[in-house]
Amino acid sequence: MKKQQIRLLIKKKLKAQREELRNKKSSKIKKLLFSQSEFIQADTVMFYIAKNGEVDTAKMIKDALKMGKKVVVPITLEKEKKIIPSLLKNPEKELEKGPYVKKKKKKRFMKRVLLKHIDLIVVPGIAFDRQGNRLGRGGGYFDRFLAKLKKINVPIFGVAFKFQIIKQLPVLSHDIPVSKLIFA
Length: 184
Hints:
The chain is an alpha/beta fold. It has helices at about 5-15, 20-35, 35-40, 60-65, 90-95, 140-145, and strands at about 45, 70-75, 80-90, 95, 105, 120-125, 125-130, 135, 155-160, 165, 180-184. The mean pLDDT is about 90.
């Protein structure tokens, strides 16, 4: 299958999944993520902000903050087609409804974080394969962002529902795989 066909198929499954089941699986994924040594040792963790039925990161963000971790979320600059990592201290105050997401970081609260200060990144994906290849949302934002991290060697974790894991994804030279895949 081609990337666009896979995106359409998985997006349909994400949309069809009952909210109750999504929350239950997201909770399981959070527990698995929080038990990973890379997460336990990380001082600063970057999370994506879930949209369109993806693994919910809202509870992960809140619980990581309660644990005393520094939390970073992406601010997407559409014109420049890039992501700026920004420190998040108070989700209720600093997040707002976005055009594509339930919540997004308010730009006026942007507190840029240098890549070298991020210890772990949790990335979204429409689909993954067992080799860690990732099919993103289609805009290339995370691929461009993750390409900058090659030199720093930051662990990149993908989180997904089991139906998002497929046998093999078509891979291009600019695609960045995840270090570890956590799913339920």
